[in-house]
Amino acid sequence: MHNHQQQHQHLSIVDSLLMQMFGRPKGILGRLGGFILAHTKRDFTEWVIHLLEVQPDDKVLEVGFGPGVGIEILAAAVSTGYVAGVDYSKEMVEQARARNAKAIETGLVQLEYGSVEKLPFADDTFDKVLAINSMQVWPDVMVGLREIWRVMKGGGKIALGFTPHSGQSRTGLTEMLTTAGFTEAHLVETDQGFCALATK
Fold first, then answer.
1. Is residue 21 domain-shared with residue 97, that is, in the same domain?
2. Could you tell me which residues come within 8 angstroms of residue 33 by beta carbon, excluding any fewer than 6 positions away?
């Protein structure tokens, strides 16, 4: 009986930790959250990157890269291109930089601490942009989307991916993209989640 009680207590602690880990990750919980996210999200991340049809010479930006798994996959997909990332968690920037240290050394990858509302990049820089389980925590979605639109090249593609634990609703996503200036906005779904795609 004692053991069962302990287990139950443990579960409620885990629930309260999840929010701290996956909200805006900090400290040891952020690190732990990063490792868990790194493993659960890889398949879904690969699917979103596949939908973007990343080419070897593409310049790609990931907004809210977390532990840097997507960055790792992208770095393997582009050989003559370039991969950039922005995340507002210093903990995640450190973790992702460690994970992608070699690619950063060679200049293939650049990871910055910062916000989607003020991207540290010039206009018309990127061919592809992705954000996975990120948009639902942006302070202002429209400002973020317009800023992404600004740093994208004409004809570039954006992908916003969400797994069920993101809490993001499918409703109104394509309309938001259209309002921000994108065209051909549409949703693609998989058993692991869904993705909104659009073109500049």
1. no
2. 18, 20, 21, 22, 25
Quote the domain boundaries for residue 162: 38-199
> What does DSSP say about strands 183-190 and 193-199: parallel, antiparallel, or unpaired?
antiparallel
Q: Which is nearest to 63 in space by CA: 93, 107, 25, 34?
A: 93
| Per-residue pLDDT tens over the stretch 60-112 | 999 999 989 999 999 999 999 999 999 999 999 999 999 999 999 999 999 99
**112 and 13 fall within a common domain:** no
**Total number of domains constituting the chain:** 2
Q: How confident is the model over 160-172, as pLDDT tens digits?
A: 999 988 889 999 9
**Closest Cα to residue 70, out of 121, 117, 129?**
129
Per DSSP, which regions of the chain are E strands? 59-63, 82-87, 109-113, 126-132, 152-162, 183-190, 193-199
